[in-house]
Amino acid sequence: xxxxxxxxxxxxxxxxxxxxxxxxxxxxxxxxxxxxxxxxxxxxxxxxxxxxxxxxxxxxxxxxxxxxxxxxxxxxxxxxxxxxxxxxxxxxxxxxxxxxxxxxxxxxxxxxxxxxxxxxxxxxxxxxxxxxxxxxxxxxxxxxxxxxxxxxxxxxxxxxxxxxxxxxxxxxxxxxxxxxxxxxxxxxxxxxxxxxxxxxxxxxxxxxxxxxxxxxxxxxxxxxxxxxxxxxxxxxxxxxxxxxxxxxxxxxxxxxxxxxxxxxxxxxxxxxxxxxxxxxxxxxxxxxxxxxxxxxxxxxxxxxxxxxxxxxxxxxxxxxxxxxxxxxxxxxxxxxxxxxxxxxxxxxxxxxxxxxxxxxxxxxxxxxxxxxxxxxxxxxxxxxxxxxxxxxxxxxxxxxxxxxxxxxxxx
Length: 411
Ligand SMILES: N=CN[C@@H](CCC(=O)O)C(=O)O
Ligand SMILES: [Zn+2]
Known about the structure:
It is found in: Cytoplasm. Belongs to the metallo-dependent hydrolases superfamily. HutI family. The chain is α/β, with parallel strands linked by helices. It folds into two domains: 2-72 and 371-410, Urease, subunit C, domain 1 (Roll), CATH 2.30.40.10; 75-362, TIM Barrel (Alpha-Beta Barrel). The chain has 15 helices and 16 strands. The strands form two sheets. Strands 1, 2, 3, 4, 5, 14, 15 and 16 form an eight-stranded mixed sheet that branches. Helix 4 packs across helix 5 (154-170), helix 5 runs parallel beside helix 6 (193-210) and helix 6 packs parallel to helix 7 (228-239). Bound molecules: N-(iminomethyl)-L-glutamic acid and zinc ion (ZN). N-(iminomethyl)-L-glutamic acid binds at residues 109-110, 113, 220, 248, 251, 296, 322, 324-327. N-(iminomethyl)-L-glutamic acid (NIG) is lined by residues 109-110, 113, 220, 248, 251, 296, 322, 324-327.
């Protein structure tokens, strides 16, 4: 199947093979071709160029993209879209003055979602999660990572991971799976963290590995959740099963989680709302991608990741939604890109790089996704007619997406 786009106003994020992530000042550049064409063949980007050099090509279908921008689809490297029900009541509690931490301390938060999920059948959980996946795909997400972590028992964690696996089998976009058993202490282990960590390490990890249910391992390294010591213990144990760390750190406090992540060669460290200069130093020279989640900051009213400090230190940065029922009930990458510009002072070029090529790196996909490069997957966004790519983050709250393609097929 050959699909041809002609008269593209601007073909965005055009990169040579071998560009796998961008750091510091490199993120200011967003290479493009104006008045371009692009051919997809068998799901891949086969060729592209300027209209003035257009060779005669016979395609099965031709799209006139006049006035429109064609770009790689968004990559959402951090989500929790497999969950049951919602936590609307906590939203109201926060409006009435309670903080996220206060709600967690009085028994709400993650264990609340866990109770709901434990009582939900695998089929029902799949149906609820599938709706969210379809919703975000329509908004331009063309590759996604999904975490467990709302099960908090062996059976319920495995149920979540099986749902993620089924989504991967039933949908064409890449779906990466992360085991986040160490998301919070279940109510039964409230005073027995050691016991819960033992359960994760001795029972959950071997089963996750046996069924090959996850590629990554995660932990919420934060005051009131898991310590740096717990993080070191879990990540060392997970290494034996070849699970690569991608961890929640520095959301509310800087307690040394970034150093631990870098030492364990984490692929990414995510959240980073609270960063001190030593945390930034730790990331220098590492292969670990910092990931910011600005819609979480918006929803909880907490600080935004200090993107300028991170980029000005020469580091890379990726953006993701964190779509989950507690801190970010929203999976709109377009909004994330806008917030990064508005609240984190990233330029449109930096934000788009962070949500495409760097986001691909954060889930091990930057060889195959995240840029307009010959041979990469034809996972694309075709915008409506818009004046320029900067109009995307500028017109926050609107998506301006005409159509989304996964492996060259319109969804
Ligand atoms: N911070 C930890 N985990 C999720 C929130 C979980 C929840 O509140 O349900 C996050 O990334 O924000
Ligand atoms: Zn998260």
